[in-house]
Fold this sequence. Notes:
GO molecular function, one term: ATP binding
Keywords: ATP-binding, Nucleotide-binding
Radius of gyration: 16 Å
Strand order of the largest sheet: 1-2-3-5-4
CATH topology: Heat Shock Protein 90
Protein name: ATP-binding protein
Amino acid sequence: MNVLNKGLDIELLNYEIRIKGIVDIKSIGSIIKICHVEVKAKYESKSVSNKFSTCLYELVANAVEHGNKNGIAKSVRINIDFSKDKITFRVEDEGKGFDWKSYNYNFEESDEYRGRGLKIVKYYCNELTFNDRGNIISACIYT
């Protein structure tokens, strides 16, 4: 039955994406672009869609590069939930995790080129939490 012909307004509010295998920067960019289009369609603020895309890209790139160590047999799981007032997203890798409790998020205290991704995510997100192991990151951007 085609529900669209019945006058129903259906909106997808949750996504789960699983990436498995060799993932390069270009393929991550393609996934983020698809998600960006969805966010742009759901929220009027260009700032929200740009923050979301930047943060999701950094988290997925970190999961692939640092969490899974570019492992072919490992996957990255992304969950995205849309609500009226916020976008919540979670990125999970199959790596050992990292010590997020001692991570330094201060831009000014580091001259290193590496490690800026989580600092950017922390800056743009209204909420950022980790599981104890450090292989699951949940983020929230208020709309």
